[in-house]
C-alpha cells in the first residue's frame, strides 16, 4: 500500500517506517497523522513484523506539528472564546494523543532513529517509542514554548520519566535544544552515531536481533516495563504474575535450549492476529 | 438511520435507545455490539441530544452475550491451547470493554430503564450507565458464573463501586438474582416502578429535566463524579479546579438568574460537536 | 470571641458551632467563610475540645453560597474572557476548597446536625464532616446545577464515596432534593430525628461520648478512616502501622482497664497544642 | 488434625471452620492466631475445598483480642518508651494483619456466619471475609476505642469500603454497637436469620452452591472484585484482561452447556495445589 | 520591603532572592523560614515576576537547619516522651514541609544557583526547585544522618525522582557529599560553572529567557511536569487535556508568529493576581 | 550456622553474605533460594547487624536461575496445558518474588558488590538491593529473553525506576550486556573498582560507615526512599510525618552532638528484635 507521507518496508519480520516528506521537513500534517494511525493499527492487528524502526529523511527527523493547517476548517478549533469550545479541548487532545499511545501499545518494540531536529510534536512521538538512537548532530527541542503554547501531546508526561526532571524543566521553559551527546549521557538516547546511515543500520540490526526472540516474551516484557513505569513496585510485581500466567510458554524455553544445543537459530511462533468481536461478518439469525 | 437491533429516537434533546430484538431476548450479538458502538460514537461526536435513555423490549432487558456465535470464525478466539492466543485475550477484552466505556465517556448522562432480566453482559452495560431505574419484576444476574466463566466486561470492576462488596461477592459466586427491591435498598437502582411504561416515562421525564440544564455543566459534573470514584479526594479536588477552568461559563449563571427573574425557562447552548484533527478533508500541499 | 455569622460554645470538651444568620438563610457569605476558617484553625491548633458539633438556625441549615456578592470586586473573578483569568480558577478553587478540607483535617470528629435545606455549598460542607444527623424534614440539594453551574467545592468529590454513585448522578444532574429518610437508608445520614432539638441534643450527646475516649486514639481512627477511603487496602494497612507507631499509648489502655475495674470514668490526656516552627517569637542572633 | 481453638470439617468440597473456645468467648489468643494461620495456609496450598464457612460457638462470635496475654513476655511489646520499640510497631502490626489478609488471598470464597457479638478483632476478621451472614441478635462493635486504643488490624481499612463512611466514623469514635438489621440495610451483612442453626445451614448451602461452579472462575471473580475495590476502573479493566488470559478455560464453558443439555450437574476440575520453588526436597549436585 | 535573612530584587520580570546571612552560613533559622514563606506567598499572589532565581552568599549555599534554636520554647517540640507529642510530629512536619511545597506550587519556574555546601535542609529546598545550577566546588550533603536523624522535609521524597535511587541510598545512609560534577552527570544539576558570578549570571539569563515566554504557557508546563512525576502516564495525559482547556490562549500563538514575522520580541500578558474569596473587604448586609 | 550455598560473616555490626558455589557459577538453585530466605529472615528478626554486604565468588556474581532443576517434581510447574496450572503461575511467582522483596524490607541497607556476570535472576536480586558497586569487568544481562522467556522476578519492575526506560527496553528485548562503566554513568552502579578485592573492601567500608549511624534513623531513611519511589510526592511527604512520629528519637540527636563535642564516636542503640504475636510459647488457660 502507498502512503503520501511515509514509506513502509517489512523484511525478515522487521518493519521500517520512514517519514518521507523532506521538502516540508516532515512536519506533522493531518494526512501524516491519519496515515501514521492507519499503519500502527495495521501493524498491531496483523503483526506482520516483530519490531518497528522509525526513521526519517531530509534535514530534520521532523519539524513538529504543521501549524499552517490550523484554521477555521481545522479539526481542532482554536476558538477559545466560549466554554463549549474550551471544554472540547480535553477530549480532542485525548484523541490526538491516542496516535502516539498506539506506539506504546504496539505488541512489538519501536526504535526511533533520529537525525537532525526532533522538534515539537516530534519529541512527543519520540518519547512514546521504546528506544531512541541518534546521530551526533541530532537535537531535541520542545518547540511549543517558542511559539507561545504548552506542549500537550505527551512530551511533558513521558519525558520526566525518561530523563531527570530538572533537565525537563529547562527544556520546557526555555525551548533550548538538547544535543545528542547530552541526551546520551542522560539516557534519553541509547547510542549516538556519526552518520544517519550507520544509525539506521544499527537500528535495523537491533530490530533483527529482537525479531529472533519469541514475540510473546518480547511483548510481555514491553507490557511489564510500561506498567512498572506507571505503578508501584507492589502493583507491578502482582501484574507480572497475571501477565505471565497468560503469556508463559514452556515450548519457547525448550526451543531455545534445543536450538542452542543443535547450534541453530531458534524458531518461535509469530503472534496471532488480533480479532475484534464486532468486526466479523456476522449476520443476525 | 435504521438499525437491526435498536431503535433510536431523538426528541426535545433527549435520545431514546431501545434494544429491539425481543425474539432473541435482546442477546448481545456482534451486530448489536457494532451498532451500539456506532450509535454511541455518533451521539458523542455530534451531541444531538443532552441525555440518553436506554430501555428494552420483550421479556428481558437483555439475556446477555449471544454465546452461540462463538466459534471457529468468531472475533474472539476461544482457543486456549497456546500462549499466543491466550496473550491475545487481554487486548481483545480491552476492545470489547471499550463499547461500555463509551457510555461512561459520553458527554451526556445515560439512564438505563431496566425491566425483566438484566443478565450477564447486561449487568456489565447497566453498571456503565449513570443512573438505573427498574420495574418491580426486574432482576440482575451475573450469569457468567452459571455458564462456567468469570464476568469480564466491567461488572466485577464497576459493581463493587456501586453496591456493598459483600453483595457483589454473593452475586458473582452463586449466580443468584438480585431483585429490584433489594437493588433499590442498596442504591444500585434509583427508583422502582410498577410497570415498564411508568418506568420509561419517568426515565424520559428525568432526561428532559437534565436536558433543560446547561450541557457543559452537566458534562462537567459527569466527569467529576467518575473521576472521584477512581481517585483520591486530594486528586479529585485538584482535578475539579482544572476541569472548572475549562468549563466555567459565567453566561450560564447569568441566564439561569435572568430566566428565573423573568419566569421563563432558561436557554443554554448545546455542546459543540467534537472534531478530530485527522478527520478533516485535508490535502497535502 | 464574637463572630458575625456563628456562635461558638465549648463545654465539657465539646465544641458547638452554630450558623447564626437565619435572616439570610445562613448563606455562605465571604465573612462566614473567613470566620469558619478562623474557628477551625483555632480548634485545630489549640484543641480546646475533643469533638465538634455544627448545627444551624432558622429555616435552612444553609442555602449555600451567597452569590449576590460575586461581582467586579469579588475575590473570585467571574471574568472568563481570557486565559489568564481562567487559569486562575484552579488555584482559587483550591483555596476555597481548603476551608472544608480543614474540617476533614481537624484532630477531632465533626458531627453535622442538619435541619431544613442543606443546599449547594452546604452539601460540600456536610460531606466533609465525619457524621451527619438530620431532622425528618431535612433535605440535600446540589443546587449548583439549578443555577447553571457545576458544584466545585467537594460535593462531587466526596459524595460518591458516601452514597451509591447512581444516586449522586441523579442529584447532580437534576438538582432534585434527597430527603432525610432516603439519606438515612443510603447511609449518608446516621440517624433521623423528629425535631431539631432532639437532633442537636443527640449530636451533643454523641460528641460527649466521643470526648470521654482518649483523643489520641480518636484522632488516629479519624486519620485511618480518611486514609483508607482514598488509598488501596494494601497502602492503608501499611499506613496503619506507621500511624500506630506514633500514636500508640500503653497508658491509655491501662487507664481504661483501671477505670473499669474501679467503676469510674477513665481520664485521658488532651492533645497538646500544635506549634509552628516559624511562628515562635524568635530573634536572630 | 486436631486444633485447640477450632474444629475444621471438610465435606463435599466445603470447609467449615468453627471457633470453639466458647468458655473464653472465643477471644483471640495467640494460640488461636497461630492455628488460624496454619489452617488458612493449608487450605490455600492444598485446596481441599472450594468454599469456606467460618462460624462460632457460645455467646459471641468472638470477644476480640485476648488482651490478658499482653505482658512482659508477649510477642508484641507494649513498651512505648523508646524509639526502637515504637519503630517496631509498624512491622509487627503488618505481621499480625497478615493473618486476616490470608482470608482475602484465599483461592476460595469465605463466608462468615456471625451470631452474638462480633467484637474488636472480630470485626477486623469479619471485614476480611467475602460474605457476612448474621443472626438477628448479632452486632458489630469496634471495641478498641472502648479500651483506649485505635483499631489496627484491618477494620478501619476495610469497613469504609463496605459501608458508608459516616457510619464507620460513628462506630469507630463511640464504640457503639451496629445491630444486624442496620448492618443488613447498609449491606455489610447479606442476610439475617432467626437462629444460628438456620444461618449456618444457609451459609453451608451457599458454600455448596459455590462449590458446584468451576473453582478457577470463582477464584478469578474473587481476585477481580478485590482488585477493583483498590484500583481505578481503568486499571481494574486492564487487570481483568491479564487475569482472564491466565484463567480462561473453554472446557468449563463447554462442560456447563453439555451438563445443562444433559440435565446433570456439571463437573469442574479442582484447583491444583500450590507449590513453592524452595520447598521441594532438592539436593545440590 | 526589607528582610533580615534575604535580599529580594525584581528586575525585568525576573525575581532574584538571595540568602543573605553568610556569617551564620545561611542556616535555616525560624526567621528565615518565616520570611521565605512570606516572600513566596507574595510572589505567588501578585506575580510581579515570571521567573525566580535563588542564590546565596558566603561560604555555603546553606548549612541547613539552625538546630541551636530547638529547645523548650521552640515551635517543634523535641519531647518524644508521650504519645500526644509524638502524634503532633506528623502535622507539624506537614506544616514545615509546606514552605518548600510553595516553591513547587509557585506559578513561575524557580532556579537554584548553588555554590559551596548545600547541606541538610538545603537539599530539601534545592530538590523542590525546578532547575539547579552549581559551581564546580558545590556539593550536596544529606547532613541529617550525620547528626543522628532522618531527613524529613522533602529530600527523601523528591531526590529519588531526580537521581537514580542507588545514589540516593548512599547519600542518605552515609552522609557523604555528592560533588557538583557527579551531580551534573546524574542530571541533578543542569550545568556547572567555574565561579559563582558566572553561575548567577547564567541563572539570571535563563530566567530572562523564560520571562520572554507567555507566563500562562510556562505555568501550564510546570503544572504538567510536576503532575506527570507523581501520576501514571494515563492520568497525566488526561490531566493535560483539562489543564489545556483552561490555559489555552490562541492569542499567544498569534502573537508569537506575528512577532517573528515582524522581527520583534513578542509581548505576552502577565498572569493576573490570585484573589481569595474570603480576603476581600466584604461587609455583611 | 553452616549453609551450603553461602557463607555469612558478621563483624562489627556488618553482615557479609557471600554466594559460595563458584563451581556452578552461583546459579540460583532451590537450596540457595531457601537459604537466602532463611538468612534474610534471621537478619530481619534479630538485627545482629546494621548493614549487609552481598558479594560472590568465582567467575560470575551469579549465572541466574538454575533451570536444570525445573522438571516434573519441581516446585514451579512448567505445565502450561490447563487453566488451573496457568492460574497458579501468579501466586507462585508472588511467592518467588518474595525472596527479593525481603531484601527491600530488611531493616538495614543492603549493598551488592558485583563482579563478572550478573545474569538473569541475578539482576532481579541486584535491583532489590539498596546500593550496587561493581568491578570494571562486571556486566548486567537480562538473560531471560535469551532463553525464550520474560523476566518475572523483579527486574522489569525495579530496573525502570533505577535507569532510563529506553535502556531497560534495549536490555530486555535484546539480551545484550550492560557493562559496568555504562551502568555507572547511568547511576545503576554507584562506583566501579579495578579489582574484586578493592570493591569488597569498599563495600564493607561503606557498611561500617552506615553501622556507625543510628539504626533507627537509617531504617527510617530506607523506608522513606522506597515509599517515595512508589508513591506521589504528596503521599510520600505525608508518610514521612507518620514515619517520623514513630522513629524520632531526640536522644540520638543529643548523642551525636555530645560525641562530636567530646571528639569521640557516637553510640546508638541497636534495633530491638522483631517479635511475632503468634510465635511466643503461649498456652491456653
TrEMBL record, chains A, B, C, D, E, F:
GO biological process, one term: fatty acid beta-oxidation
SUPFAM superfamilies: ClpP/crotonase
Protein name (record): Enoyl-CoA hydratase
One Pfam family matching this protein: ECH_1
Family label: Belongs to the enoyl-CoA hydratase/isomerase family.
Species, as recorded: Noviherbaspirillum denitrificans
GO molecular function: isomerase activity
Highest taxon of source: Bacteria
Amino acid at each position: 500500500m502507498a502512503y503520501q507521507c511515509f514509506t513502509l518496508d517489512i523484511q525478515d519480520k522487521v518493519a521500517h517506517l520512514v517519514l518521507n516528506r523532506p521538502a516540508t521537513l516532515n512536519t506533522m500534517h493531518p494526512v501524516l497523522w491519519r496515515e501514521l494511525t492507519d499503519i500502527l493499527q495495521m501493524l498491531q492487528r496483523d503483526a506482520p513484523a516483530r519490531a518497528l524502526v522509525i526513521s526519517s529523511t531530509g534535514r530534520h527527523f521532523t519539524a513538529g506539528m504543521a501549524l499552517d493547517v490550523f484554521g477555521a476548517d481545522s479539526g481542532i478549533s482554536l476558538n477559545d472564546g466560549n466554554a463549549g469550545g474550551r471544554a472540547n479541548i480535553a477530549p480532542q487532545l485525548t484523541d490526538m494523543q491516542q496516535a502516539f499511545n498506539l506506539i506504546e501499545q504496539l505488541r512489538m518494540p519501536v526504535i526511533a532513529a533520529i537525525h537532525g531536529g526532533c522538534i515539537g510534536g516530534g519529541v512527543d512521538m519520540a518519547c512514546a517509542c521504546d528506544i531512541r538512537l541518534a546521530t551526533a548532530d541530532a537535537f531535541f527541542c520542545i518547540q511549543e514554548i517558542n511559539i507561545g503554547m504548552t506542549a500537550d501531546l505527551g512530551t511533558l508526561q513521558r519525558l520526566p520519566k525518561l530523563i531527570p526532571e530538572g533537565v525537563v524543566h529547562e527544556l520546557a521553559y526555555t525551548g533550548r535544544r538538547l544535543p545528542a551527546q547530552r541526551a546520551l549521557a542522560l539516557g534519553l538516547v541509547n547510542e549516538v552515531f556519526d552518520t544517519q546511515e550507520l544509525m539506521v543500520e544499527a537500528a535495523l540490526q537491533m530490530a533483527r536481533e529482537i525479531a529472533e526472540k519469541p514475540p510473546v516474551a518480547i511483548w510481555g516484557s514491553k507490557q511489564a516495563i510500561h506498567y512498572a513505569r506507571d505503578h508501584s513496585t507492589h502493583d507491578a510485581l502482582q501484574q507480572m504474575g497475571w501477565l505471565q500466567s497468560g503469556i508463559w510458554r514452556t515450548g519457547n524455553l525448550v526451543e531455545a535450549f534445543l536450538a542452542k544445543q543443535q547450534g541453530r537459530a531458534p524458531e518461535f511462533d509469530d503472534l496471532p492476529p488480533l480479532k475484534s468481536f464486532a468486526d466479523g461478518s456476522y449476520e443476525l439469525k
